[in-house]
Amino acid sequence: MGKQRLFQDIAEKISDFISDGVFPPGSRLPGERDLAERFGVSRVTIREAAIALQAVGKVDIRTGSGIYVSDDQPAAQNALPEVSAFELTEARSLIEAEAAALAAKSISDESLAELDRLIEEMASSDKEVALAADREFHAVIARASANKAMVYTIETLWRMREELPTVKSSYDVVCYDDAQLLAKEHKDILEALKARDPVVARRAMREHFRRLISTMLDASEKEAMREVQQRLRASRVRFLDSSVPG
Amino acid sequence: MGKQRLFQDIAEKISDFISDGVFPPGSRLPGERDLAERFGVSRVTIREAAIALQAVGKVDIRTGSGIYVSDDQPAAQNALPEVSAFELTEARSLIEAEAAALAAKSISDESLAELDRLIEEMASSDKEVALAADREFHAVIARASANKAMVYTIETLWRMREELPTVKSSYDVVCYDDAQLLAKEHKDILEALKARDPVVARRAMREHFRRLISTMLDASEKEAMREVQQRLRASRVRFLDSSVPG
DNA sequence: ACCCTCGATTGCTCTTACAAATTAACGCTT
DNA sequence: AAGCGTTAATTTGTAAGAGCAATCGAGGGT
């Protein structure tokens, strides 16, 4: 980790100090010359670190006065919250179902054709391609809802699915274990949209995610079982070892 | 506004060049020495500007190679999308209704008491207090859904309501024009939650927003009428002026 | 008690210099 | 002629030192 630029190192250290309460919000941290001496780097480096921190809103540099820790740390501003795969899937179930219901009333024939194409693409053996198609399938429906707030929300939920490590691993395990079922669910959704039936579209979308949650539960159950077995085996080894002394 | 720091000036200029397509995404911009000469500043200043731009993701500095414009400009990353007040309200209606339905099944007595208190607070004549109470009312219900993805989504939607200027003005006009109705709607929602009835809670929440949309439509209609009248009056003046020559 | 001035502190920019990383050119080998 | 490794030039990264400008606080004058 020490191979990044020096000023980034310093920026991280200062940032850590801020999070750890060494430099409370609103407080003024030591002068550039002082910091340079403490960290054993040049003033330029301190300055670069400070500018980087200022650019992301963590500190506020005031000419002739000093460097001050921002009152409101921008933590929750950009960062996605730590949600479980279950929570995310439940939220997607509810929200995307409503998007599908909206879409059913106004989706264009072009979008329907696009969805047809994407379902075929999801059958691809290339995981990357299939995943991208999956994403686009849901995105097309979101856009067909003709509500930019819904589109943005659904995009954000997908970002959680990809950018949160724990969620991503859960999904990757579960998502393509039964491509057959997955394809059928997507087709059901598409059929409902083609029929312009909001109620059926909503139900189909919910069913899609309901099945996903159920599969996740099974998987996590199996995982739990496996862990228990492993622990038992380990303790058995330990027991056998300790039960046959010298 | 040339009174800000020099490196920020430079950073803005470079940023403008990027937005204007002078430096296309992915391209490499001139070396630090080159830029320094062109802008008539020192290399340090160029460097500080570059670091500020890198911190917000607009460029990527590669050691020994150069400064490159980021492929995906971070516009859509942090920024809220431009949504209309109608779109936002529709999305809130659908999403918060589902949150209420979830909450109905698991909300605690403490949260219910809190909601009671907040409804009283919303009756305050102080707009600030009433607005904060309104926000908290919806936030408490969101949290009671016990789904962090829903909580985050609803928080984000509220941010749109407050941070997007056009939306904010629409809401501020409409929201407190009939405090009587507003209070009744909130009470209806609370009653449904107390009864632990998801279906009624969902309906009550939807009704709340449905009425809001309807009021907005009325208001925008009145606004349109007013504009038309004003335009007519203006042209009448012009007509009278020009119809009496000399 | 208030305002003004002045000096010390601090951030801001410049210059010069050298180290480290990357890239491109060159020459060698196959 | 094509591929490959070495070298040299280019570019970013960091350091040290200096002077300038903005800010803040203490002290003096009204």
Structural features, described:
2 copies of one chain form a homodimer. Chain A has 246 residues and is mainly alpha-helical. Chain A has 2 domains: 70 residues, Orthogonal Bundle (Arc Repressor Mutant, subunit A); 140 residues, Four Helix Bundle (Hemerythrin (Met), subunit A). Helices cover 74% and strands 4% of the residues of chain A. In chain A, a hairpin with a 3-residue loop joins strand 2 and strand 3. Chains A and B meet through helix 3, helix 5 and helix 8 of A and helix 3, helix 5 and helix 8 of B.
Short description:
The structure is a homodimer of 246-residue chains. Chain A is mainly alpha-helical.
How are the elements arranged and paired?
Two copies of one chain form a homodimer.
Chain A: H1 6-19, E1 28-29, H2 32-39, H3 43-55, E2 59-62, E3 66-69, H4 75-78, H5 85-106, H6 109-122, H7 127-144, H8 148-163, H9 165-175, H10 179-194, H11 198-243
The structure holds a DNA duplex (30 and 30 nucleotides).
